[in-house]
Write a structure and sequence with these properties.
Length: 301
């Protein structure tokens, strides 16, 4: 075969492969462009009707993380699928792909792509499962806390601070509480009531698999941070009590500690009916005002 015929044949195959790629991807690319510009136009033409943004619901920070992680997960998945599909088309339509050098190059490219994106994809999946579990836990605890409104408490969810949030805050005559929710899976291998029992000795938590301080340190830090911020915001020293709530776990308390550890069903019975030094209505109002302003949701961007 003459050189010009060889290159002519290869060129035809390249053009054919390019045509297949265009046919496969052009509609998707066009749709993405249309969606992008329609979204920008929609946001420019319409405004949200709220003059005052609603307060954050339980688990709002986790919901935002789940939404963002879903986008990252799609990017990783599309990167792996796109790399594999492109290699397939090249091997299918290019005669030169029969060369060992081309096979080696494409194989090496695929390996590098999977080494980069596959662990990232698996990590994102694990984070997504954990965030979803945490969101369910915060919603479950939030539902129990919302019932305290009938007991003259004000309840705030997902109080944001820089780089972290406080899951729930309670304000009432009995005082102020920072509530941390920790949702933990139970071991399937352990049978009976033992798999749902956690023991609190005032210092550590005894789970079926061993001791740790899961959530205790965070609950203490949250209470201290909230106390410092409310004191500065209201001008009056505002002590804050720490509470750790474990959805789905039966809590056995053998000693008192700096953190009150509870099952969600126990929360309503955890407060004194007649506190020794109740907060005045004016103090409660000033504290609630600061929390309300900080807990408002952000407008969509």
């Amino acid at each position: 075969m003459k050189l010009d015929q060889l290159f002519g044949s290869i060129g035809s195959q390249v053009l054919y492969g390019a045509f297949i790629l265009i046919v496969c991807f052009a509609p998707l690319f066009a749709l993405m462009v249309i969606v992008h510009f329609r979204r920008k136009r929609f946001k420019a033409d319409y405004l949200e009707p709220f003059t005052e943004m609603p307060l954050r619901p339980p688990g709002e920070s986790l919901r935002i993380k789940i939404e963002s992680l879903g986008d990252e997960l799609e990017d990783s998945l599309f990167a792996l699928m796109g790399t594999s599909f492109l290699a397939f088309l090249l091997l299918l339509f290019l005669p030169m792909a029969k060369s060992g050098v081309v096979w080696l190059t494409l194989g090496l490219g695929l390996v590098i792509s999977y080494v980069i994106y596959a662990p990232k994809l698996l990590r994102q999946l694990q984070e997504l499962w954990n965030y979803r579990l945490g969101l369910k836990g915060e919603c479950a605890v939030g539902q129990e806390l919302n019932q305290l409104v009938a007991d003259v408490f004000q309840v705030f969810h997902d109080l944001p601070f820089e780089n972290f949030n406080i899951d729930h805050v309670l304000v009432g005559p009995a005082g102020v509480w920072a509530v941390e929710t920790k949702t933990r899976r139970k071991p399937a291998a352990i049978k009976g009531a033992a798999k749902a029992l956690v023991t609190y000795d005032g210092q550590t938590l005894q789970f079926p698999w061993g001791n740790d301080r899961f959530g205790l340190d965070q609950a203490e830090r949250n209470a201290a941070t909230l106390s410092k911020w409310l004191t500065a915001s209201t001008g009056d020293f505002t002590p804050v009590s720490a509470m750790l709530v474990l959805p789905g776990w039966w809590v056995e308390r053998k000693a008192r500690g700096t953190v009150n550890v509870l099952n969600p069903k126990e929360v309503r019975r955890a407060f004194p009916l007649r506190p020794a030094n109740p907060l005045s209505p004016d103090r409660i109002q000033r504290i609630a005002f600061q929390l309300t302003e900080r807990c408002r949701m952000e407008r969509a961007k």
